[in-house]
């Protein structure tokens, strides 16, 4: 397979601690912030995080060239040695999403700008060149932040930058791809 030209970044938002044999659909296997947990009619946001991963792997199934980077550092004091990125890889493995496909890990980012910049660095270190196109999988409400601030800050060409926005179901919005 030729070296990857495209990069798909999955921005991580929590720590899954169930391991590769756990059940990522079970909210208790996630270290969620209070606002991310189920309550009333609202489902836990861990289900949205699984949709973020599914979206990235769906793109790869249609075009085998993109490299996937899970991006997120060690953010939870209860799990100081488990990065969000590594935990997402465990969740993907538990659900057989990855199908033995290599997923690169960016394990230092603690905000969305770092998700972008550090993931480009991981991609470049692996393949020896910058990606031609970047797609970021995150919440829809972060679209403007990524397109109007982060991509412009690093002078990334707009026509080679895409955001796949998937919000939690309580927001009333679903997926939007531009």
Q: In words, what does this structure look like?
A:
The radius of gyration is 15 Å and the shape is globular. Residues 171-176 have low confidence and may be disordered. The protein has one domain (6-177): Rossmann fold. It is 31% helix and 19% strand. The strands form 2 sheets. The chain has a 6-stranded mixed beta sheet with strand order 5-4-1-6-7-8, sandwiched between helices. It is of the alpha/beta class and 178 residues long.
CATH class: Alpha Beta
Give the helix level as a range of percent: 25-40%
Named at the architecture level, the CATH assignment is: 3-Layer(aba) Sandwich
For the secondary structure, the number of strands is: 8
For the record, the count of structural domains works out to 1
**Count of DSSP-assigned helices:** 4
CA radius of gyration? 15 Å
CATH fold category name: Rossmann fold
- Strands of the biggest beta sheet: in what spatial order? 5-4-1-6-7-8
Largest sheet: 6 strands, mixed
The first-to-last residue Cα distance is 28 Å
> Which stretches are low in confidence, meaning pLDDT under 50 for 5 or more residues running?
171-176
Brief account:
With 178 residues, the protein is of the alpha/beta class.
Q: What brief labels describe this structure?
A:
alpha/beta, Rossmann fold, two-stranded antiparallel ribbon, 31% helix, globular
